[in-house]
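To illustrate the input format used throughout this study, we show a single complete record. The first block contains the structure-token representation of the backbone; no residue identities are included at this stage. The design step must infer an amino acid for every position from geometry alone.
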């Protein structure tokens, strides 16, 4: 940094420091004054309430005395004595009342709470008597507040409040007067702790002083702060000269309460804080000055090494640019490789499954035509080899899609129990054939996952547990763990050695199969399960003891079950059977020739070999087949025969830019019927499965077992009229 920059930075910092300090002190002073104004406004409000209660109590005494005077028959001496006793008793209960007395219409003393009978006195010259007797200007007041009256002591005194009793014509009959002790207010003000310089006082609306604290403080009525009729009742305190003053008019009474305090006393805490702020700012500036001196000395050294750093930076920039270019090139190469891999996967997924589908159909037809037991045995072995190849192809494609990051995931909320029950049903026959107990513990838990991806994980773990357990049993259960749900699969099998626990997730790794027996699989199941679980974010773990068994766990996000709808409306997760799974018993029973007798099946397949194999397979099952290489040809054939098919069996990828799903929907529209349809395709797309489901079509992945094709069509066309 150059020295000129250092000087500019120091001066800027010093100016900011001084400015911030001055601004802070100014804002603190303003806040202190505003707080004091609010406090004194609240003080005046408290004085207002206190004085109002005291005056209200005295006014209540006057009203009761006027009621008694109105009913008093002055010829009854005992009644006067009773009124006087009541006056004295009430006055003694109220500390602010210094006495109560009554005057007649001429201003002579009529009753006195101090003694009865009262001494003869003429009080017509007192201000309260003159006010009610009409000797002053203006209309007679309702409640009159009199001037200060001296008391017997040096610091005592009182002021009066009075009301007049008049007859129906308005003529004066009597005057009731109450003396209010000003010491009552002074004592309360003195005990409130307003501060040494505080001044509190009561004035009449004519600015005559009634009471004050401290005594003999010569409090003067304020000028600017004096309340006017148009002022709001809760207005703030006002700075008037060297005092901060708040004044309020008592509601319903011509009395003003005033509270004031010297500004010097109010701002004393602020001055102390301002001194501290100034001291801190000075310390900061001193420290900054020392740092500036050191920085200025180092600026010379900085200028000496700047040239060397500049040369080094130029060299580094060149290396960074070159490295960035290399990384961008590598990124483009990786993206191109990923796109190429996705294209290869799509091609392999479709083109390898096409011939396998034809092979499966022709193999099924050959087995039915071959009566030789030896050929039947060879055909069964060929079927097993074909299924093993299909499973290996499925596993390789699944593993490749996981590595390429193109495996779609559709997360939803669903109950776990149906998924576990289906998996147990698939493997129960195998377990019972080995004499094993397969137990699924009931659970009502709901989880968040992709059921189509979670199902193969659990199927692989459960299948391995049954496969590698010779005696005992397999138990499947679910346990809550915090916000998750841990699905556990326990077996009593041979167990896994500790050294192999880390390698069982690798591709093509199998325990106890050094000869690579193909009937035991290719060793890809656990690798696919582990990568799929990682894709879903579900931790997959294993614990095992050799000779005792193993437990595999998958931890899923647990969600609260939704409000229970009617049983028929409970949605279940969409579950899929395993690839090349054996047919259920009731469907295998329908594999006999003629089960599609009387049905017309429209086959749409552009590959001649595939079309021929499907035609022969369906005709052997008794179906009438209309085969076409496109939906245009299929539509022409249907219109020529004037007969709608019982079902449609179509490939998905067709020539001419038309896919099987849109062709099915178009043909349904032309025929005016919702014809059952099956898509037989090598595409493995979640979007395709979802679109087919929305269109009411079933999807069979190539290569599909011939019996599965026939059974699916038989179920879809069950009950169809042979003449239809």
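Output of the design step:
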């Amino acid at each position: 940094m150059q020295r000129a920059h250092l000087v500019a930075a120091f001066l800027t910092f010093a100016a900011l420091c001084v400015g911030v300090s001055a601004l802070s002190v100014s804002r603190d002073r303003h806040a202190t004054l505003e707080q004091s104004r609010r406090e004194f406004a609240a003080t005046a409000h408290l004085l207002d309430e206190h004085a109002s209660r005291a005056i209200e109590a005295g006014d209540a005494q006057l009203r009761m005395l006027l009621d008694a005077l109105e009913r008093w028959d002055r010829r009854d001496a005992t009644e006067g004595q009773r009124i006087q006793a009541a006056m004295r008793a009430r006055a003694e209960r109220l500390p602010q009342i210094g006495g109560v007395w009554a005057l007649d219409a001429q201003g002579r003393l009529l009753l006195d709470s101090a003694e009865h009978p009262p001494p003869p006195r003429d009080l017509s010259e007192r201000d309260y008597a003159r006010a009610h007797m009409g000797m002053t200007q203006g209309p007679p007041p309702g409640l009159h507040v009199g001037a200060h009256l001296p008391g017997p002591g040096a610091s005592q005194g009182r002021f009066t409040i009075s009301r007049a009793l008049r007859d129906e014509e308005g003529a004066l009959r009597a005057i009731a007067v109450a003396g209010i002790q000003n010491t009552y207010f002074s004592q309360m003000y003195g005990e409130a702790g307003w501060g040494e310089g505080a001044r509190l006082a009561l004035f009449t609306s004519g600015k005559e002083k009634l009471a004050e604290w401290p005594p003999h403080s010569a409090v003067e009525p304020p000028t600017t702060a004096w309340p006017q009729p148009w002022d709001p009742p809760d207005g703030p305190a006002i700075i008037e000269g060297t005092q901060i003053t708040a004044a309020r008019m008592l509601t319903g009474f011509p009395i003003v309460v005033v509270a004031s305090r010297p500004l010097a006393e109010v701002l004393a805490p602020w001055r102390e804080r301002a001194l501290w702020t100034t001291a801190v700012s000075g310390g900061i500036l001193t420290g900054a000055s020392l740092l500036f001196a050191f920085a200025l000395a180092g600026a010379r050294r900085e200028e000496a090494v700047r040239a060397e750093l500049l040369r080094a930076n130029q060299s580094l920039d060149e290396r960074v640019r070159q490295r960035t270019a290399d990384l961008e090139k590598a990124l483009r190469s990786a993206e191109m490789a990923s796109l190429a891999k996705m294209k290869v996967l799509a091609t392999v997924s479709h083109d390898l499954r096409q011939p396998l589908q034809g092979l499966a159909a022709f193999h099924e037809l050959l087995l039915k035509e071959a009566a030789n037991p030896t050929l039947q045995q060879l055909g069964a072995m060929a079927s097993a080899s074909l299924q093993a190849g299909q499973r290996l192809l499925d596993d390789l494609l699944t593993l490749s899609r996981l590595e390429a990051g193109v495996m779609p995931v559709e997360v939803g909320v669903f109950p776990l129990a149906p998924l576990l029950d289906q998996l147990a049903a698939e493997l129960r026959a195998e377990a019972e054939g080995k004499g094993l107990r397969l137990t699924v513990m009931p659970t009502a838990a709901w989880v968040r996952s992709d059921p189509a991806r979670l199902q193969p994980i659990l199927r692989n773990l459960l299948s391995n547990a049954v496969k590698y357990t010779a005696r005992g049993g397999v138990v499947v259960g679910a346990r809550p763990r915090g916000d998750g749900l841990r699905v556990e699969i326990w077996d009593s099998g041979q167990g896994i050695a500790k050294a192999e626990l880390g390698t069982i997730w690798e591709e093509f790794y199998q325990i106890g199969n050094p000869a690579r027996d193909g009937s035991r699989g290719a060793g890809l199941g656990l690798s696919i399960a582990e990568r799929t679980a990682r894709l879903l974010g579900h931790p997959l773990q294993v614990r095992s003891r050799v000779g005792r068994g193993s437990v595999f766990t998958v931890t899923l996000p647990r969600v609260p079950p939704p409000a229970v709808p009617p049983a028929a409306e409970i949605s279940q997760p969409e579950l899929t059977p395993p690839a090349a799974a054996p047919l259920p018993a009731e469907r295998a029973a329908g594999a006999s020739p003629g089960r599609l007798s009387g049905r017309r099946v429209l086959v749409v397949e552009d590959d001649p070999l595939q079309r021929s194999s499907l035609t022969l397979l369906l005709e052997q099952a008794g179906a009438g087949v209309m085969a076409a290489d496109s939906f245009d040809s299929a539509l022409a054939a249907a219109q020529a025969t004037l007969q709608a098919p019982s079902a449609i069996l179509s490939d998905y990828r067709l020539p001419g830019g038309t896919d099987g799903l849109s062709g099915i929907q178009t043909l349904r529209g032309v025929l005016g019927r919702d014809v059952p349809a099956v898509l037989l395709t090598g595409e493995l797309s979640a979007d395709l499965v979802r679109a087919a489901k929305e269109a009411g079509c079933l999807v069979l992945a190539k290569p599909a077992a011939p019996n599965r094709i026939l059974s699916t069509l038989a179920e879809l066309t069950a009950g169809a009229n042979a003449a239809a």
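Structural context for interpreting the output: The two ends are 95 Å apart (CA to CA). Residues 26 and 582 are 89 Å apart (CA to CA).
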